[in-house]
Amino acid sequence: MPRRATKRGSERTPLSGDFDVVVCGASFAGLAVARELHCSGASVLVVDRYEIGERQTSACAAPTEWLHNLGLQDSIRQTFRDLVIHRPSRTYRWTLPWTFSTFDYRTLCGLLADQGDFVFDTAKVDGITRGATHVVHTDRGDLRAPLVVDALGWRRVLSSSPDAIQPPDARLSRGLEVHPPASGEDLELWLDPKYVVPGYSWAFPAGDEVRVGVGSFNPRIHVKDPTVALAQDIGVDAVRYQGNWIPHRLRPATDDGVFMVGDSAGHCLPTTAEGIRTALYFGLACGRELRKVVEGRQTRGQALARYGSFSADHKWAFDWLWRVQSIVSGVNRHPAMDTALKVMDRPSFVRWAFTHYLNIAPPSFALEGARPYAPQPWRAEALAA
Ligand SMILES: Cc1cc2nc3c(=O)[nH]c(=O)nc-3n(C[C@H](O)[C@H](O)[C@H](O)COP(=O)(O)OP(=O)(O)OC[C@H]3O[C@@H](n4cnc5c(N)ncnc54)[C@H](O)[C@@H]3O)c2cc1C
User: Fold this and answer.
1) How far apart are CA 121 and CA 119, in angstroms?
2) 375: which of 69, 97, 238, 281 lies 20 to 30 Å off by Cα?
3) Alpha carbon of 57 to ligand 1 centroid (Å)
4) Which residues are CB-neighbours of 182 under 8 A, at least 6 positions away?
5) What percentage of residues in the chain have a pLDDT greater than 70?
C-alpha cells in the first residue's frame, strides 16, 4: 500500500531525501518493480508526474492470465477469446489458445500499487547525476539512491546518451485512439491500407466504452484523420483522445548504472505494439534483482549485469517481430498480404503462433519470485467460462 511522501495541494513541501530505491514512473513497469520489493525492508520511493492511475497510457488490453496471476482480475472490463481481423477483401476470425482482456487503467494501477510497500509522490523527473549514490533531479527537489529505475516510458529520460532518440527520427511508432461511450462484442483489428499502410487499426470494447485507434509504424505518418475515419465507419464518436509514441526496437536495459524498464528499454513488442505485458514482465524481473541487492545477496553491479542480460536474451524475439512489422509495412497494400493471411487462417497455425507469441513473456513468470503475496495460479478451465 503506497504512502505519500509529502502533503498534497497548497500544503505541498519540497520533495527530497535518501532512499534505497527510487523508481521513476508509476505505470505498468514502475509499479511492477515496486511490487517485487514488498516487505524487503528497503525504503522505496516511486515518483510520477501524475497521481497513480490518473493518465491512461494505452488501449489497456492484455492477456487475461497475466492479469489473474498478478491478482489484477478485478480491473477486467471485457474478455475475448477470438481476434477478428478485417482486410478490405475479407474478415477473419481467429480463436486464440488464450484470451485477451481489456481493463480499467486506474483500477489496475491501484491494485498493483496496493501490492507494493512504498512511498509515492508526484514530481516531474528532469535528469540524473550518476555515482555510487545517484541523484535524481526533479522539479520538486533531489532524490538520492544507489538503485534507480527509469520506468518513464519511451522518452528514456534518464539515459546517459546525448542522442536519446526523439521522434520523428526515432525507432518509434505513433498511436492515437478515441474512447467513445459505446459497446461491442469483439476484439477487432484492421489491416486495411485505407486507414494506414505501415500499421494497423483497432477497436477494443471495454464495458461501456470502445477504444478505437490507429497505429503507424512510421513515425512520420500522422494518424488523427484515419482514427476519425475509423470511428465514423464503425459508427462511434471520435471523442476522448489519447495518444503516444510506442517504441518498436529493443534498447539496452541498463544505462550507466540505471535500470531501464518497459517502454524506456523498448520493451514493447514490435508488430503488435503490445507493451503492457512486457512492461510487467521486465518490471518483475528488475524488481527481483533489486530485491537481492537490498537483501545483501548481490551487488548493484551484479544486478545490472543479470537484468541487462535477461532483457538481452529476448532480443531474438523482438528482432523477429520487428522483421514481421517491416514485412507488414511492405505488403499491406498488396495481394501478398491476403495470401499470407489465408495461409495463416488455420486453427493449428493460430494455436502454434499465438502460443509462441505468449511465451515471449509467459504469464507463469508472474507467479515466481520471493514476494510473500502469491496469488493462486489461474486455472486454464476458466477459459471455458
Ligand atoms: C494508443 C496506444 C494504445 C496502446 N494499446 C496497448 C494495448 O492495448 N495493450 C498493450 O499491451 N500495449 C498497448 N500500448 C503500448 C503500451 O501503452 C506501452 O507499451 C506501456 O504503457 C508501457 O508501459 P510503461 O510503464 O513502460 O510506460 P508508460 O505506461 O508510458 O508509463 C510511463 C509513466 O512515466 C510517467 N512519466 C513520464 N515522463 C515523466 C517525467 N519526466 N517525470 C515523471 N513521470 C513521468 C508517466 O506519467 C507514466 O505514468 C498502446 C500504446 C498506445 C500509444
Assistant:
1) 7
2) 97
3) 4
4) 205, 208, 209, 210, 236
5) 93
What letter would DSSP give residue 332?
Answer: T
Q: Ligand 1 centroid vs 62 CA: distance in angstroms?
A: 13
The span from the CA of 133 to the CA of 309, in Å, is: 23
CB 265 within 8 A of CB 294: no
Identity of the amino acid at 140: R
> Which residue among 251, 276, 282 has the greatest number of ligand 1 atoms within 8 angstroms of its CB, and so is best to mutate?
276
Q: What is d(CA 213, CA 194) in angstroms, rounded to the nearest whole number?
A: 14
How far apart are the C-alpha atoms of 274 and 246, rounded to whole Å? Answer: 9
Residues whose CB is less than 8 angstroms from the CB of residue 159 and which lie 6 or more positions away in sequence, other chains included: 150, 255, 260, 264
Query: Do 349 and 340 contact (CB within 8 A), yes or no?
Result: no
Task: Give the mean pLDDT per block of 10 residues along the chain (385 residues).
Answer: 72 86 98 95 96 93 97 97 96 97 98 95 96 97 97 94 69 94 97 95 97 95 96 96 93 96 96 97 98 96 98 97 93 92 96 97 90 51 42
User: From CA 156, how far away is CA 159, in angstroms rounded?
Assistant: 6
The reply to whether ligand 1 has any atom less than 6 angstroms from the CB of 152 is: yes
Number of helical (H) and strand (E) elements in the chain, helices listed first: 9, 19
C-alpha cell at 173: 511508432
Domain boundaries, the chain: 3-384
Q: Are the CB atoms for 210 and 61 separated by under 8 Å?
A: no
CA of 279 relative to ligand 1 center, distance in Å:
9
Class of domain 3-384: alpha beta
* Model confidence, pTM: 0.95
**Ligand 1 contact via 243 beta carbon (within 6 Å):** yes
User: pLDDT tens, 120-175?
Assistant: 999 999 999 999 999 999 999 999 999 999 999 999 999 988 656 677 667 899 99
177 lines ligand 1 (CB under 6 A): yes
Distance 300 CA to ligand 1 centre (A): 26
Cα separation of 152 and 315, whole Å? 21
The amino acid present at 203, given as its one-letter code, is: A
Say yes or no: CB of residue 262 within 6 Å of ligand 1: yes
CA–centroid distance, residue 31 to ligand 1 (Å): 12
Looking at the CA of residue 215, tell me the nearest atom of ligand 1: 1
